[in-house]
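Per reviewer request, we include the raw input and output of the structure prediction for the construct analysed in the revised manuscript.
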Amino acid sequence: MSSSHRSHTSDAVIKKEAHATGAVLLPKEQPEDFIAEFNRTYASIGWKIESLPPTKVIKNRD
């Protein structure tokens, strides 16, 4: 059975006390502002978003 879910590359990870706990797709507009606001809001419970470096997509040569 096929899935209707599409695979996406993550833009960032959520960390709790230095351990990655989840992947995040950032908004296309002002992602830095989103990260800063998230980190301010959730710092008290030890959560933090860190952006990931861009990845290069390699296409099949079929």
